[in-house]
Amino acid sequence: MKKLLSIFIPVLLLAACGGNGDGGQTEDDGLTEVTFVLDWTPNTNHTGIYAAQAEGYYEEAGLDVEIILPGEAGAEQTVATGNGDFGISAQENVTQARLQDVSIVSLAAIIQDNTSVLASPEEYGLETPSDLEGHTYGGYGSPIEEETIASIMQADDADIENVDIINIGDTDFFTAVQRDVDFAWIYYGWTGIEAELRDFPLNTIDFTEYSDALNFYTPVLITNEEMIENDAETVEAFTEATAEGYQLAMDDPETAAQHLLDAEPDLDEELVMASQEWLTDVYQGDAPYWGHQERDVWENYMNWMYESGLIESELDVDQAFTNEYLPGGE
Length: 330
Known about the structure:
alpha/beta
């Protein structure tokens, strides 16, 4: 789960015109075919999807769901073009996409709070943003990374100009911080838990302790506007069945994790089980129901992106997300 920050692909703007947005085909058995695009290789952020599939929630909702990997195009482009009906993205990508007239919409926050952190081996002594000065960060080449780190360092009276930044691509976190860099950006619910299992002590720096705006939604469930306009019934059926899958992941994490393992047997069972247990209280957090999205979260992060120069204009965030199709939503 290393692809924390994807660089939005400019070609998306061109490709977005190809979407048909009319939902899937209906099979002889009466089920509507739906394609779901992951954002990365299967992991516990996706458990609710696999649980909904295995428990038959999708079939009960009249859907035949095919789960696919994003490929080179990425989930946003695949969904925007109508080559996928639903997918997983992140708030920053939805924001950037919509400012390029790419009409993807967030249907649910898969995790309520930003659980990503800056992490380093404990022995390096990097406990606060100001400690990062004079050290090397290993990232993925996204401008959002540098602006985010700069923001928390500024809040801690430090300067990112005193940090060396290199692109480590897909290098494994544990290899990178012992060979190439001093710290990197991880999802605690996966790599952090893996570090615990390895008895690899980490220092972590939580972005949200330095800026409320950095507590944004990542990941989120997406579709495109054409899908909503032309087949709202399928959007509602899919979103409700998916919510049921994540509810199972919260109520019975072991069973839900086993569904993920059954579908993806190459995953590390110990890591999946431990990660799933950690996420049990994180999926919904303090929200009134799973998937709920607050307007303030969308607006605060959009404003932060604008003030940081990451986007050239402000976004009408009311068009970027909806709670309408969630059980309990409005």
